[in-house]
Amino acid sequence: MKVKVLCRNPDDYVRETTRDIQRVPRNYDPTLHPFEVTREYTRALNATKLERIFAKPFVASLDGHRDGINCLAKHSKSLSTVLSGACDGEVKLWNLSKRECLRTIQAHEGFVRGICSRFCGTSFFTVGDDKTVKQWSMEPPGYGLKEEPLNTILGKAVYTGIDHHQTEGTFATCGQTVDIWDEQRTSPIRSFNWGVDSFSCVRYNPVETEILASCASDRSIILYDMREATPLKKVIMQLRSNTLCWNPMEAYNFTCSNEDYNLYTYDMRRLDVPVTVHMDHVSAVLDVDYSPTGKEFVSASFDKTIRIFPKHSGHSREVYHTKRMQHVICVKWSADNKYILSGSDEMNIRLWKANASEKLGVLTAREKVSLNYNQRLREKFQHHPQVQRIARHRHLPRDIFKQKRELREMKEARRRKEQNVRKHSKPGSVPLVTEKEKHVLAVVD
Question: Nearest CA to 443 among 284, 283, 220, 252?
Answer without folding.
Answer: 220
